[in-house]
Write a structure and sequence with these properties.
It is a single chain. With 90 residues, this protein is of the alpha/beta class. It has helices at residues 12-16, 40-59, 72-80, and strands at residues 6-10, 23-27, 63-67, 84-86. The chain starts with 5 loop residues before the first strand and ends with a strand. It contains three helices and four strands; from the N terminus they run βαβαβαβ. The chain has one domain (6-86). α2 links the parallel β2 and β3.
Length: 90
């Protein structure tokens, strides 16, 4: 994967301000409670990002937006995966 894609965990309010930037939304990416903590979240996200990288070759996508649930646990997971959080009130 030679192409760099910026990663964001972003709220819907901020998303409205980014309409002019080529981006893709990953919505409600989750792992069943029975399988949490067993690396499935990382594998699922890695697969999604690999697909985005392939799509971006033809579409010019430069930002990945994740519509994450508003929970500390999920926010910490996204931060651990090098996503950046953007608040609704900049």
């Amino acid at each position: 994967m030679n192409q760099r894609v910026k990663l964001l965990a972003i709220t819907p309010c901020v998303l409205n301000r980014l309409k002019e930037i080529p981006s893709i939304l990953i919505g409600r990416l989750a792992v069943n409670e029975d399988y949490k903590g067993q690396v499935f979240g990382v594998l699922t996200l890695a697969d999604a990002l690999k697909r985005v990288a392939n799509i971006s070759k033809d579409t010019g996508i430069s930002i990945v937006v994740v519509d994450a649930l508003n929970s500390i646990k999920q926010l910490n997971f996204m931060k651990s995966m090098d996503f950046k959080y953007f608040d609704d009130n900049p």
